[in-house]
C-alpha cells in the first residue's frame, strides 16, 4: 500500500475531473481545501486509508481531513484495523459460540465477531479491568487468580487490545519465567521478592510443558488438528515463532512456545494470521504529527507528553520490557512485554539487561522506520527537552528506592493543589538541597521521562505500574542522586 500524506497537494482537483462521481466514490477535502475523489477503505486508530479511482491506496492521519470528512468517517462505523465482517468459511464454523467457549473456559465468544464487538462489553464479561486508554486505543489486563482458567490452563496474564472501542486482539500468557516467580505485589512492592534458586529452569520447563500439552489437547478436542504456521515480527524465537493455529468464524487462535520463556495464546483476526502477524508501517510524517499533537503545555510551565499507553508489569521485574513496550507503541511499533523480555534475556522473576533488550529488538524497530538514541550522562533539562518537545518520551535507568518513591509520591500529591508556583519553586529547591537520597543497587528500575518544567527544575516520569503511576514529579537534583545515567529513546 502506498502512503502519501500530501496526496491532496500532489493530485489537487485533477482526479475529480478525470473520474466522475460514482456510488463508491465521494469527495474528500483536506484542511488546505484540496479535494480528491476516493473511497473509504479502512480505519486503523488515528489513520484512514482511502482508495482512488485508479486503485492506488493512501494512508494518512484522519485529522488532516476536513471536519465534515472526519464526521463521515466516524459515522461510517468502520471497525479499527478494518477487519472484515466476512471471513472464509471453515470446518469449525458450524460450532456455536457456547461450544467454543467450553474450550475457552470463559465467555470469550458470542454471536458477534470479537472484531465488531465493544471492547468494554467483552472486558466486562471476562472480568478484565482497563489497563490503559488513549485517544484512539485502549487495553485491558488482568493478572488472574489461580482458579481462572482459559483453554485448559491457568493464564497469569490476560490482555485485550482495542482501537476505537473495537477489539483487535487478545494476548494470554500462561507458564512463564517471570510470573512463576512473582513478588508480593505490583507497583512499588514488586521489588520485595525471593530470588529463584538453581531449580528455577526446571520449574519453568515443567510448568510450560504442562500448559502447552493441556492447551493443545483442549483446542484439538473441540476444533480438530491444528495447522502449523509462522507468526510475528522480528528475529526467530524473539518475535517470530512457530505456532499451532485453529480457526473459527473469523478468529484465529494461535498457541506458541518461546523455549524456556513463556507459553502464550493469541486470538487475532484470520486475516492478520494469514499475513503472519505483520503490521503495516506507519511513516515518520504521521508519527511525528501524532506525537506532537499529544504534547501538553500547561500554564504553570509543565511540558508533558500525554496519551502514552500504560502497561502494567505486574508483580515481577519486567520494568524494562514493559517500559520499552510503552515507548514503542507510542510511536506506532507493535510490542509485547513478554516477547521483549525474551529479547532482553530477562531472569527468573524479572531483571532485564536493557542494552540486551534494545539490541534484540533493534531490527524490528528499524524495520518500522523508527530510530534509537542511547547515551550515558548526567540529567540535563536541555537533553530531556530535545525529545519531549517533539512528543517523544525517554527511557531512564535509575535506582527506584523506597525513599525516592516516598518523595515522588508526596510531591505529586502536593502539586495537584499548588496555585503559587513561585513559592513551590522555592520549596522544592530547598528540599532538593537538603535531600539525602542515595543509590541502592537492589532497586534498579527503568521508567519513562515524560516531561519537564524549566522554571521549577523538575522532571515528570511514568512507571509501568498502572494508571496510579502514570505521572509523577521529582526535582532534577534529586533525580540525579538516584540516576544510573543511562538513557534510551525510541524516536524518529
The proportion of residues forming helix, as a percent range, comes to 25-40%
Oligomer: single chain
Overall pLDDT confidence: 84
Which residues sit in consecutive blocks of at least 5 with pLDDT less than 50? 1-6, 9-23, 79-85
Q: From the 3D structure, determine the CATH topology of the largest domain.
A: Cathepsin B, Chain A
In brief:
By secondary structure, this protein is α+β, with helices and mostly antiparallel strands. It contains 15 helices and 20 strands.
SSE topology:
Elements lengths: L6 H5 L2 H5 L7 E4 L5 E10 L2 E6 L4 E5 L5 H10 L20 H8 L14 H8 L3 E4 L3 E7 L13 E7 L2 E11 L23 H24 L3 E5 L9 E8 L2 E8 L3 E8 H5 L9 H10 L1 E3 L5 E3 L13 H12 L6 H7 L10 H14 L3 E6 L4 H8 L5 E6 L2 H14 L5 H13 L10 E10 L4 E5 L9 E4 H6 L1 E9 L1
Antiparallel strand pairs: 1-2, 2-3, 3-4, 5-6, 6-7, 7-8, 8-12, 9-10, 10-11, 11-12, 13-14, 14-17, 15-20, 16-17, 16-20, 17-18, 18-19
Helix pairs in contact: 4-6, 9-10, 9-11, 10-11
Overview of the molecule:
The protein has 492 residues and is α+β, with helices and mostly antiparallel strands. It is built from 15 helices and 20 strands. The protein has helices spanning 7-11, 14-18, 67-76, 97-104, 119-126, 200-223, 270-274, 284-293, 319-330, 337-343, 354-367, 381-388, 402-415, 421-433, 476-481; strands at 26-29, 35-44, 47-52, 57-61, 130-133, 137-143, 157-163, 166-176, 227-231, 241-248, 251-258, 262-269, 295-297, 303-305, 371-376, 394-399, 444-453, 458-462, 472-475, 483-491. The strands form 3 sheets. The protein has an 8-stranded antiparallel beta sheet with strand order 5-6-7-8-12-11-10-9, with helices on both faces. A hairpin with a 4-residue loop joins strand 17 (444-453) and strand 18. It is globular. The protein starts with 6 loop residues before the first helix and ends with a strand. 47% of the residues are buried. The model is unreliable at 1-6, 9-23 and 79-85 (pLDDT under 50).
